[in-house]
Design goal:
Helix content: 40-55%
Number of helices: 9
Number of strands: 7
Strand order of the largest sheet: 3-2-1-4-5-7-6
Strand content: 15-25%
Number of domains: 1
CATH topology: Rossmann fold
CATH superfamily: Vaccinia Virus protein VP39
Distance between the termini: 76 Å
Bound molecules: S-adenosylmethionine
Order of helices and strands: HHHHHHEHEHEEHEEE
Radius of gyration: 19 Å
């Protein structure tokens, strides 16, 4: 069989699978997705992603936290007594909205891209959680006054190290130098945070957590490693 014919069959097969999956996902209404997450059941990512803007849906698999991961992180936050959580680099709001549905904590997403902040606010309003799930526009380095009981980090600066095909868009500075600056700014923020501060990393932060953060749990069943850390008390003098 010619290579051209194989490509056509593969393309048709991909289109058939995509249309089957789309058909399946459309059975999930927004209400059904919201209720499932509130009840501790995990809907498929395709079902949740239907409620994202098409441009943001297209990059979901690579850039946004899967529903299952957000639900596990939210359970850890609640279990360990966090009331306020900041998602550093909150993107289209998927993590904060899912975690807000899955737990009673307050979530604040910090995001550098204004279009994503607007979309995230709409998503939170659609799912009826905007009272507890908020988003602010800003860059981490300029937002060092932020304080919370817990921080969530889905490798937020990794995009700086990707090639242009994997950028979310070309509207912000992306470079190795920026990656180093943003990782350092996060490390400074965590160094200043009080003892007891919780951190959840999904696929890491891009550098080590500062001295004093102890790993409490690690989930390796998720696509990337999900880890929970807590800042310990300083040793008695
Ligand atoms: C991997 S995505 C994670 C999105 C979201 N936390 C989630 O899990 O669904 C990282 C996001 O961080 C944002 N970001 C990267 N550097 C940032 C910075 N210095 N300040 C604020 N946002 C940043 C990017 O624009 C992107 O939307």
């Amino acid at each position: 069989m010619s290579a051209k014919r194989v490509n056509l069959i593969e393309r048709d097969e991909r289109a058939r699978v995509t249309s089957l999956l789309d058909g399946y996902a459309t059975r999930w209404s927004l209400d059904l997705v919201g209720r499932a997450i509130r009840n501790g059941e995990c809907p498929p990512d395709l079902a949740f992603d239907r409620f994202l803007h098409p441009d943001h849906r297209a990059v979901s698999q690579q850039h946004w936290t899967p529903v299952l991961v957000a639900m596990r992180a939210a359970a850890w936050f609640e279990q360990h007594g966090a009331r306020t959580v900041i998602d550093i680099g909150s993107g289209a709001g998927k993590f904060c909205v899912v975690a807000g549905l899955a737990s009673a904590c307050q979530y604040l997403g910090l995001e550098q891209r204004p279009g994503l902040v607007a979309a995230a606010r709409e998503l939170a309003a659609g799912f009826g959680v905007s009272g507890r799930v908020r988003f602010v526009e800003g860059r981490l380095a300029e937002s060092q006054h932020l304080h919370a009981d817990a921080y969530y980090l889905y490798n937020p600066f990794g995009e700086n190290l990707f090639g242009p095909d994997d950028f979310i868009d070309q509207e912000v500075e992306l470079s190795k130098e920026r990656h180093a600056r943003d990782v350092e700014a996060t490390q400074r923020l965590l160094r200043r945070a009080p003892s007891g501060t919780l951190v959840v990393t999904y696929n890491g932060l891009g550098g080590p957590l500062p001295f004093g953060y102890v790993e409490l749990a690690c989930d390796r069943e998720t696509r990337n490693e999900l880890r929970l850390w807590r800042k310990r008390e300083p040793p008695a003098a």
